[in-house]
């Protein structure tokens, strides 16, 4: 594995480098929003034109700031997007996902150069070579499979790298309970499995959410109480039973949806000793930027455990959907979905803990 430096970039004024990083991140978010819009609402060439312009500006900014190794990769990606604009490359979901992943990896390398003036070149070279090969394919029907291959290479490159760093890290974090808490937890576990079946999810959904909650929490500078987090993970959705009952009345359903965290918190509060968990359940639909519900809380007014819980739920439900076993969407797409909410639904420092947790999951899956 080699390393590289961009001396001219490192010598630029700090204010200019700050502006570059901010512009890159803004363009990255815009491109993610466009791709999400295409996936959710349908393909339009106007959206692709906007995506191309954002990517072209991103590449131009990096070029002006002497980041030639990054420019080479962005240019290869730009050629593919331009091919989709020119209608000789068909837009596919895998190409949209690949675009997001490439920009994420290039962004990580930009951050390395920004903070330490040196970065690893293995990922950049792998992306450059494979994007070149994808663009050069004569049969457009093969490009979807090639995009999937590149996504797999990225995922394996990241997990191989982390294996050497954290082989000794435990994936399964266990919570310890008192005798009284253990009795409650068993009841909460049974309720969670029953509700998930009613909602059309796998009964194992609660266990998946709990395991990820504990893993994310383990990486926090100030982790929350694991027993309280466990109770919240099992009981956070109990209020959704009222949503099911109101399915035939749209107005009542919307009210029940908005109030379900309060209902779940009240149900949990009937069991003494779970006060922290009650607050987590009540706030798990709140958002860092204040646009959540039921109370539109902002920032630090929201318990850290509520953010941990909602991140875990978002990831698990994106990957697994309502299936009983098969993946609904790729893990990488789910990671992007959570990371896209940095500074919006979730505080950035908790996103870092989430990413570290998922890296451990990917390592274990690879093994």
Model regions low in confidence, pLDDT < 50 over at least 5 residues: 162-169, 324-328
CATH architecture descriptor text of the largest domain: Orthogonal Bundle
Binned strand content: under 5%
Largest sheet: 2 strands, antiparallel
- What CATH first level of the largest domain would be assigned? Mainly Alpha
**Into which percent range does the helicity of residues fall?**
over 70%
Count of all domains: 2
Short précis:
With 367 residues, the chain is mostly helical. The chain contains 16 helices and two strands.
Explain what the structure shows:
The chain is 70% helix and 1% strand. The chain has 367 residues and is mainly α. The chain folds into two domains: 3-166, Four Helix Bundle (Hemerythrin (Met), subunit A), CATH 1.20.120; 179-366, Hypothetical protein af1432 (Orthogonal Bundle), CATH 1.10.3210.10. Strands 1-2 form a two-stranded antiparallel ribbon. Helix 4 runs parallel beside helix 6 (122-136) and helix 13 (275-283) crosses helix 14. The two termini are 21 Å apart.
Task: Please render the helix and strand layout as text.
Elements: E1 3-4, H1 7-10, H2 14-41, H3 45-64, H4 68-85, H5 93-116, E2 119-120, H6 122-136, H7 143-166, H8 179-199, H9 205-218, H10 226-235, H11 240-245, H12 250-269, H13 275-283, H14 304-320, H15 331-339, H16 348-366
Antiparallel strand pairs: 1-2
Helix pairs in contact: 2-3, 2-5, 3-4, 4-5, 4-6, 5-7, 6-7, 7-16, 8-10, 9-10, 9-14, 9-16, 10-13, 12-13, 13-14, 14-15
